Amino acid sequence: MPTYTPPLRDMQFVLHEVLKVTDELKVLPPHAEVDADTINAVLEEGGKFAAEVAFPLNISGDTEGCRLDKTTHEVTTPQGFKEAYAQYVEGGWAALSCDPQYGGQGLPFVVNQCFYEMMNAANQAWTMYPGLSHGAYECLHAHGTEAQKALYLPKLTSGEWTGTMCLTEPHCGTDLGLLRTKAEPQEDGTYKITGAKIFISAGEHDMAANIVHLVLARLPDAPAGSKGISLFVVPKFQINADGTLGERNAIFCGALEHKMGIHGNATAQIHIDGATGTLVGQPHKGLAAMFVMMNAARLGVGNQSLGLTEVAYQNALAYAKDRLQMRSLSGTKAKDKPADPIIVHPDVRKMLLTAKAYAEGGRALQCFCAVLLDKELHHPDEKVRKDSGDLLALLTPIVKAFITDNGFEAAVMCQQVYGGHGFIKEWGMEQFVRDARINMIYEGTNTIQSLDLLGRKVLGNNGATLKKFGKLVAALVQEEGVNEKMAEFINPIAYLGDQMTKFTTEIGFKGLQNPDEVGAAAVDYLRVAGHLVFGYFFARMAQVALREIAAGNTDPFYGAKLQTARFYFAKLLPETAMLMRTARAGSKVLMDTDLALA
To answer: Could you say which of 115, 510, 517, 585 is the most buried, measured as most Cβ atoms within 10 Å of its Cβ?
Structure first.
């Protein structure tokens, strides 16, 4: 059976020693009083909930799955899920970073993200139920009417109700301009919504009293394409004037998807047959409003794979230290045993260190992005808010795609460490692999994220936002450029940063002549950008570790951090040279292939 220990020490290192979050937060009026002790205490308790309540339900929830009563359209979640959710609500975890005006605790988003990393590591399928609710909360908080906020936000904040996002239809996924769900205006100001949605995570369940569906649909006069999409809030149960629940709305689960992983989460086919809803935001502007939830979900999906990377690594490491197979090539290490533990073998260490590096790099990036969101929302300086938002927009597709690609690779490597046992359910590793696979697909496939990064976030403004991140890299290079002990970390990112500028310019010029050149290069481009970002954070982490060691700190944590950073720069970052070469191969070898694909 797998185990899980919340990585509190590494979180504290990233938050307090690398990012110095309390210095960042003290200039934000809502968070000025938040100190390190408060953050640490919250995360320690959150880690206990993850490890002691959510984690024990992971394998059993995967085995049992969800059950649909086709007569009542009600879904029963796996045994223990509902009771765990009641503990979650009672503990106030749903309200952690929500607005105090609606009953929230008002803690920074970065604290919420760290808590959710642990929850995702413990039980991704369970965590998706409250996780999606937070996105619905953010969307209504940003775009809802005062009446909608008063009606829905207190219940979403407390966790009494949960939320979903209903976008995908049987004939359209990413291309939402093709959606057909209709919204007919009524005399009382409401709308009758009719249509079908599929792949709706947490679309129906027995864990909360009501489910708040955010549904994309078209008004009768809607223009074609994505410019004709409006957003509606459609509750499972209609709500009476006094706030109590009324009759069942005409939105229900017709079937549950039979899927590869996340079996404990109800992935629903939703039928909408004249359900009552209210408009969120302006007519035909629904996609812009929904992007608040979609961007939050993209950060959340990256966090899902970060959690899975961590828990897979922890278990593979423990197994590698215990499993005896063969002798070390350089001589017997465990003389008192019939064979050496497999951790002595170089390739086993490579797999373990890859997972460890991807977890630690991903954690630094996630925390950095969460602080950017806190600053975008609350910093008193308008320029800082804008710069933070721009940088977050640039990094969001990297969080979603790079961390999830890495997470799946890490989960497969950790499964490989187990050999044949990794293929057997009781060890838990095959579930981590299956669960990690969806993260590369939903909330916009990773190819879509790559096109978004290169086409919109980089070339769309002639690299202006990319230059903002480049300034962070340049500042670190300037600060540590003459420090010989930092050379092994600084020189690679300085070189890659310079290469990135040339690489981007080259792809941009080729794309002006043939847009397929952008499509052909995008996935490789995002991985190069992801390595530049990870390299920057590993250099910053090495910088802190070297300073602590120079000051006489003998905590082995810092030596371990340096060894992981050295592995990253030696074994993982060099992938960028290959990626730039394949990107430069162009689109012809892909598009001039009609005979090959006939």
So the answer is: 115
